[in-house]
């Protein structure tokens, strides 16, 4: 293990030891992080600011004396950092307070002196709420003393920004593992994140020019995806001499998780990036877009699966009144094409949010990697939000690939998960195509489960996934990689009607709605009765039995009529968009003539209710049938069971 890794591990162990030493009888183990994480942040910031404390104090006095209100920029400059503290205290000063009450007062003044960006971290950690308990148990002084130990050097001299970030992330990881039931909500396993970032960057690595790039995560959790993406991009571009800089942007609704993300960036010396992330309970991405109208080069997310977003939907105006341009778009001639999903699961809404922020005026456009569960592939009927999102993405030719991940990849669930790779600048060979990669067998088992997580995608496993992606239609491994036309996933959902037949009706007259209503309530259905005519079309109308327009004698004249449908006989069929037309006008008619007409000659298609849907079935495309056992094998098993039974009977008989 490299020396820096040894040092990082030692520091993490020391901090973990403080938690056990000071908090054991005050907090349950899962709540140690409520104190230790913010205290770690404070100790690092305190040591970074110590050399410029006097300069900040002098600047504060001067600004106050001059009556200047907007002081943040000047105080940052005086501190030489993107944060500062104007209280006049350091943790070393506080250590000398012998009285617990006085210590708490001074400590609160110390907290109040931090810059607004640090205040936001403290507030979202809800750290001030811990002070009464810590003071009552006389533990606040012990914590300060432990964090000031010479063995625990969190100063820039002992630990650079990258190292501090590593230590903090390791603490977060360990605390998340202590809380497996929560980990998956806010923290994506690092192996999954690395695979996602590689899927996002590597296919275009050679085409990325020197420049500045904007990275965004709309469900950023603790911010790990953004920081790993930043590292991956630099690792790919630096060796070939490209100069790349990044700006990170993200949004997160959970207060503590947001505080961790913001703190992590500040601890890494990326205070300016910390200003570009937004979070807290008031910042729900779906109903309060903090980056409306902005575009980003690279985006990735692990949105919540199967989680109700009804509160957000209500804030947006309800299912029928959403006007947010992220979710009501123009597509296929429909200016009110709705991407609004059912309120029970908003995961695809997060994907629509990412797509709304794609760059359209640059050579590279935008690339997205977003992880979802299996329901994102097939839930939602034709015309509903989930299906509409899939249709919108595929018909705009943005879907590059979907990768099925191994089971048991995440901390709080063992369900199937899939990475969607989206691009609005597909390479020529991929245009109109979608690649499906089944990587469920490419994993490395963990020696010990971490919650539900029992496997990981190692670097070697990820290499196999990337190799399949690069190979595209030349992969030569149909068990794991297949390429389809986008239209292959589409279908027309048709409504098949049959006429209402009531005994005793007159086949030569048109019935009024009220009469039809009465017949439905009081009449007797009879499949041999003539159909009920509900409407006679103008004399110029032409018959079209396929779509419910028939010829009939009405009042002694031949008319084109429409029959009243029998809702009890109504049915629907899914017709692939690729259905061949054959000798008919289109694939729908060919399907109807083959699959419906032979069994229901009086049926027709209600064309106004025909809707287009899209669904993707990995199971169907990668199904591997289990070979049936041979008759010889079955007979051998039967003989073995018979022999075993005879032995048992003999044993019982012998005992008697």
Automatic annotation (TrEMBL):
It is an enzyme of class 2 (transferase). One of its GO terms (biological process) is methylation. Pfam families: HsdM_N, N6_Mtase. Its EC number is 2.1.1.72. Residues 13-147 form the N6 adenine-specific DNA methyltransferase N-terminal domain. PANTHER family: SLR6095 PROTEIN, TYPE I RESTRICTION ENZYME MJAVIII METHYLASE SUBUNIT. This is site-specific DNA-methyltransferase (adenine-specific). The lineage of its organism: Bacteria, Bacillati, Actinomycetota, Actinomycetes, Mycobacteriales.
């Amino acid at each position: 293990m490299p020396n820096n890794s040894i040092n990082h591990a030692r520091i993490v162990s020391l901090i973990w030891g403080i938690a056990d030493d000071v908090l054991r009888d005050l907090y349950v183990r899962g709540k140690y992080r409520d104190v230790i994480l913010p205290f770690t942040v404070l100790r690092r910031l305190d040591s970074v600011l110590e050399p410029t404390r006097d300069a900040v104090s002098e600047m504060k006095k001067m600004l106050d004396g001059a009556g200047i209100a907007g002081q943040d920029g000047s105080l940052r400059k005086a501190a030489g950092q993107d944060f500062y503290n104007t209280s006049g205290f350091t943790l070393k000063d506080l250590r000398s307070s012998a009285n617990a009450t006085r210590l708490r007062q001074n400590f609160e003044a110390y907290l109040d002196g931090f810059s607004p960006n640090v205040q936001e971290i403290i507030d979202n950690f809800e750290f001030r709420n811990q002070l009464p308990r810590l003071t009552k148990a006389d533990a606040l002084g012990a914590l300060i003393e432990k964090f000031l130990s010479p063995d625990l050097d969190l100063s820039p001299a002992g630990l650079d920004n990258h190292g501090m970030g590593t230590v903090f992330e390791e603490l977060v990881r360990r605390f998340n593992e202590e809380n497996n039931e929560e980990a998956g909500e806010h923290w994506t396993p690092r192996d999954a994140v690395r695979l996602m970032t590689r899927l996002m960057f590597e296919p275009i690595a050679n085409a990325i020019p020197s420049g500045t790039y904007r990275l965004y995560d709309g469900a950023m959790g603790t911010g790990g995806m953004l920081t790993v993406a930043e590292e991956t991009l630099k690792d790919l571009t630096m060796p070939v001499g490209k100069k790349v800089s990044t700006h990170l942007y993200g949004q997160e609704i959970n207060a503590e998780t947001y505080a961790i993300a913001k703190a992590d960036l500040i601890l890494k010396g990326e205070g300016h990036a910390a200003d570009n992330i937004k979070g807290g309970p008031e910042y729900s991405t779906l109903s309060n877009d903090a980056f409306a109208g902005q575009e980003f080069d690279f985006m990735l997310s692990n949105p919540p699966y199967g989680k109700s977003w009804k509160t957000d939907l209500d804030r947006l105006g309800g299912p029928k009144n959403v006007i947010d341009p992220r979710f009501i778009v123009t597509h296929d001639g429909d200016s009110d094409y709705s991407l609004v999903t059912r309120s029970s699961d908003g995961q695809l809404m997060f994907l629509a949010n990412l797509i709304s922020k794609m760059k359209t005026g640059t050579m590279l456009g935008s690339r997205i990697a977003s992880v979802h569960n299996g329901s994102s592939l097939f839930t939602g009927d034709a015309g509903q939000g989930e299906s509409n999102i899939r249709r919108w993405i595929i018909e705009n030719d943005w879907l590059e690939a979907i990768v099925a991940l191994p089971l048991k990849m995440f901390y709080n669930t063992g369900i199937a998960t899939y990475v969607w790779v989206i691009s609005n600048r597909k390479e020529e060979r991929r245009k109109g195509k979608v690649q499906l990669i089944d990587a469920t067998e490419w994993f490395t088992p963990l020696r010990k489960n971490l919650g539900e997580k029992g496997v990981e995608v190692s670097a070697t496993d990820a290499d196999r996934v990337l190799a399949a992606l690069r190979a595209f239609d030349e992969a030569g491994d149909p068990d794991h990689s297949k390429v389809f036309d986008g239209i292959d996933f589409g279908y027309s959902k048709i409504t098949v009607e049959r006429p209402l037949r009531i005994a005793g009706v007159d086949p030569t007259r048109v019935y009024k709605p009220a009469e039809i209503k009465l017949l439905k309530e009081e009449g007797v259905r009879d499949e041999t009765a003539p159909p009920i005519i509900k409407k006679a079309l103008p004399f110029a109308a032409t018959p079209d039995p396929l779509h419910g327009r028939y010829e009939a004698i009405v009042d002694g004249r031949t008319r084109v009529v429409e029959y009243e449908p029998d809702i009890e006989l109504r049915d629907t069929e899914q017709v692939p968009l690729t259905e061949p037309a054959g000798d008919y006008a289109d694939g729908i008619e060919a399907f109807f003539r083959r699959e419906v007409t032979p069994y229901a000659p009086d049926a027709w298609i209600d064309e106004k209710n025909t809707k287009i849907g899209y669904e993707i079935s990995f199971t169907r495309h990668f199904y591997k049938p289990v070979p049936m056992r041979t008759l010889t094998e079955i007979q051998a098993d039967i003989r073995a069971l018979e022999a075993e039974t005879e032995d048992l009977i003999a044993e019982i008989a012998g005992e008697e």
